[in-house]
Amino acid sequence: MANAIEFENVSKQYRLGLVGTGTLAHDIRRFWVTNVLGKEDPYLKIGETNDRTSKGSSDYVWALRDITFNVEQGDVVGIIGKNGAGKSTLLKLLSRVTGPTTGTIRAHGRIGSLLEVGTGFHSEMTGRENIFLNGAILGMTHNEIQRKLDEIVDFSGCERYIDTPVKRYSSGMMVRLGFAVAAHLDPEILVVDEVLAVGDAEFQKKAIGKMQDVSKGEGRTVLFVSHNMASVRALCHTGILLENGMVKTTGLVGSVIDKYLSGGLADVANDMVWSENDAPGEGALRILRCAIESEDNILTNETSFRLVYEFKVMEDGISLGVNPHIYNMQDLCIFNVGTAEKPLKKGRYRTEFSIPGGLMCQGIYRIDNLYFSYGQTYFMHKQAHSFEIVSVRKDEFSDYLGVVFPSNIRGNIVPL
């Protein structure tokens, strides 16, 4: 399938705090080197990575750095990452609000953008007048807007206030009207940046349904930025994770979201060992080891493995049971396993749980370990360890697998 969008080594540099380079000498030097001598901009060499959490030594920062990816026609792509990762900058480059410092962007088709609440709206004009104004800004003709006016008003849900100045609209109503105009632009590429977060649940559902119709039914391309991972997962097929202005990972949206939500959790060792002096625990209990044991180096959704726990009881007569809870990256407990509670003497103990292959879906998981006594929590070991399951199945159905996918449960089709 042909590409609708192509980013090739795209970078965007800004100078912090000031417009331009900050001094006349810098501007003259930049003009002389780039326009007269035909050489590279000297200030491109001194920019720093876009990490908003740390203080840098340079006034120049790369909002985006060496971004390269392609988006196929009809694909719905979710762009995710922390605040300041470069998501909005990327969409502004694509929408030609600003230009790249280096690199090339190719977009094949008309682009409809909804980047900010009420972009292009005039507060003194009515909702109806702003539909014509905003539609014209987005590239629609007057006849095209007139033909779709009733449909736009109906979709926005603002019919009662359509002849009221938008300065009296709530932010949610502004979003409804702005999205309704952009969604009916009939663009080949629709760019949406976080604005749905302002709308209510009913409108978010309607907007997501419209974007799904636009992409699947009409073959148009959608780029969607949001911090609502449920919306991204429901709408998008492909994901792009940005971190400090660079692409960290791309792929199927489910796996990209898991990488984002894990935040490095998957880097925790599968075999955690503590000495008695620094072991986690409470009262007379000390946790010595939390491990995942398997015959294979990589856990797949066909691999069986064991959850192994070793602990020490510091005094006689404690009654304990062990109850691991396995969570996915949506913080949903997909299942838990456990031992019977029993009185224990002072000493070291080991317990293990066998997890069969063909049960768990691909993704990153964490384990919270509950040590219980007489039906009460004795000690909760939060994020005891984590692990990742890699898929060996075909990826086309990854969005429909559910939280578990037991491959040993199969039906049989027989004639009546």
Summarize the structure in words:
By secondary structure, this protein is α+β, with helices and mostly antiparallel strands. The protein folds into two domains: 3-10 and 64-262, Rossmann fold (3-Layer(aba) Sandwich), CATH 3.40.50.300; 266-400, Coagulation Factor XIII, Chain A, domain 1 (Distorted Sandwich). The protein contains eight helices and 20 strands. The protein has helices spanning 24-36, 87-94, 127-137, 142-156, 171-183, 201-217, 229-235, 253-262, and strands spanning 3-15, 48-49, 60-72, 76-80, 102-107, 111-114, 189-193, 221-225, 238-243, 246-252, 271-273, 281-282, 285-293, 305-313, 318-328, 333-336, 342-344, 347-355, 363-373, 376-389. The strands form four sheets. The chain has a six-stranded mixed β-sheet, with helices on both faces. Strands 11, 12, 13, 14 and 18 form a five-stranded antiparallel β-sheet that branches. Strands 15, 16, 17, 19 and 20 form a five-stranded antiparallel β-sheet that branches. Strand 9 (238-243) and strand 10 (246-252) form a beta hairpin. Helix 4 crosses helix 5 (171-183). The protein is elongated, with a radius of gyration of 27 Å. 32% of the residues are buried.
Q: What descriptors fit this protein?
A:
Coagulation Factor XIII, Chain A, domain 1, 2 domains, alpha+beta, Rossmann fold, 416 residues, 6-stranded mixed sheet, 20 strands, 8 helices, 5-stranded antiparallel sheet, 23% helix
Radius of gyration equals 27 Å
Shape by Cα distribution: elongated
Order of helices and strands: EHEEEHEEHHHEHEHEEHEEEEEEEEEE
Just give the CATH class of the largest domain: Alpha Beta
Please tally the helical runs, counting DSSP H or I stretches of 4 or more residues.
Answer: 8
Strand order of the largest sheet: 6-7-8-4-9-10
The third-level CATH topology of the largest domain is Rossmann fold
The total tally of domains equals: 2
Low-confidence stretches: none
**Mean pLDDT figure:** 82
Largest sheet: 6 strands, mixed
Fraction of residues in H or I helices: 10-25%
Measured between the Cα atoms of the first and last residue, the distance is 42 Å
State the secondary-structure class. Answer: alpha+beta
Strand content: 25-35%
Instruction: Report the strand count.
Output: 20
CATH-defined architecture of the largest domain: 3-Layer(aba) Sandwich
Question: By CATH's scheme, which homologous superfamily of the largest domain applies?
Answer: P-loop containing nucleotide triphosphate hydrolases
